[in-house]
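REQUEST ID: PR-0412
SUBMITTED BY: lab tech R.K.
PRIORITY: routine
TASK: structure prediction, single protein chain
INPUT:
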Amino acid sequence: MDLLSIEFFGLDFAGTFQEWMRQVGVFDEVLKGFIIGIIVSAPMGPVGILTVQRTLNKGRMEGLATGIGATASDFLYAIVTGYGMSFVIDIIENPAIALIIKIVGSILLFAFGVYTFRSAPKQTKINDDIPTPAESNSLYSFAMSGFAVTVSNPLIIFMFVALFGQFTFILVDNLVPQIMGYLAIIAGAFFWWFSLTWLIDKVRTKFNQRILWWINRIIGIIVMVVSGLMIIYTVTGHAIPFKL
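STATUS: complete
OUTPUT:
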């Protein structure tokens, strides 16, 4: 295995890529998972608009319950993605391939940022007549419908592949940080839905579709800037300077 000199969060580690993955600490993995959870949840897609609508029309707890349902779906797809990528870990731990994955992941994230920036939530209509349990006003029913809307879009797997590759999220023989990282994805997603419903609840009297428009554009700009910096950081050798 070729030697690597990896710098991550200010820490340097020289050795094989596999050895580095065994050395990744809980804090690093939790931070990465938290960021991934926010990035996956933040764009104002169907479930985001549904959460906003319910927060405005029914109340903050109903909107938050919808977001929690979406978080459960995202977590399911994160597990499926991580499990699938674990089968090819021997390939992606190769320094050259790891570099390519990071670059491709950054490009995909940039494209996702462009798509988010250009999307128009006000043109999206959400059908809120989703079959729910007998008590249609129960928080459980709102969570289940949020789960149903999100799980019906398996394309989210491609987003997780890009993020997992860019953040080197999948670890080898390092179970505790990996588990904590997956839990941090839930925490990041919950943080987003908690913050969004709080904001919408506070500005409900002044809310209009233009707020959704600005949310998507701000998120899109952030994702594009971050992914652009990731590409530069990786290509210049700061993220993974390696010797073949």
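NOTES: DSSP finds ten helices and two strands in the chain.
REVIEWED BY: pending
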